[in-house]
Amino acid sequence: MKPNALPILPHSEFFLGDNLLTSDYPLPIAAKDSHLFYQIEKILNMITLVTIFFTALLAVTDFTYQVLIHFPIQIINSLGSLLSYGVIGLIILVLVWIVGD
Q1: Which end of the chain is more exposed for a tag (fewer CB within 10 A), N or C?
Q2: CB–CB of 30/37 below 8 Å?
Q3: What value does the CA radius of gyration of the chain take, rounded to a whole number of Å?
Q4: CA 82 to CA 100: how far, in whole Å?
Q5: Mean pLDDT for the stretch of residues 17-37
Q6: 8 A C-beta contact, residue 27 and residue 14
Q7: Is residue 57 part of a domain?
Q8: For residues 15 and 29, is the Cβ–Cβ distance under 8 A?
Q9: Predicted pLDDT of residue 51
Q10: Which residue spans traverse the membrane (predicted)?
Q11: In a domain, 58, yes or no
């Protein structure tokens, strides 16, 4: 075998590695053209797609929460703070006016 040549894989369900540079593989490896290889590839693709779907769902849920709940509550809180400061200011103004008379 040439030093940089790729090994020729057999057309079988499992490839034991005897055609590679070393045959120290404790477990069989699925051959590239085997049905098992493509089944594993399909399963990994499905896991990836499900992960992407739930990540996108989480992002949409978080965005919806921020826009519909968190930001309006923050605005109401800040308006409430301004209102309370205004009421305190009016009370102080009235007290100063009464005491000043």
Answers
A1: C
A2: yes
A3: 35
A4: 26
A5: 59
A6: no
A7: yes
A8: yes
A9: 97
A10: 43-61, 82-100
A11: yes
Number of structural domains the chain divides into: 1
Residues 79-84: contacts with CB under 8 Å, at least 24 apart: none
pLDDT(12) > 50: no
Share of the chain above pLDDT 70, in %: 66
Q: Flag whether 86 is in a domain.
A: yes
Q: Is the pLDDT of residue 28 over 50?
A: yes
Q: Which two tokens stand for residue 93?
A: 């103004």
**Which tokens in the block code for residue 12?**
């079988």
Give pLDDT tens digits for 51-100: 999 999 999 999 999 999 999 888 888 888 888 888 888 888 888 888 88
In a domain, 45, yes or no: yes
Q: What is the mean pLDDT of residues 24-44?
A: 73
Q: Which domain holds residue 91?
A: 34-100
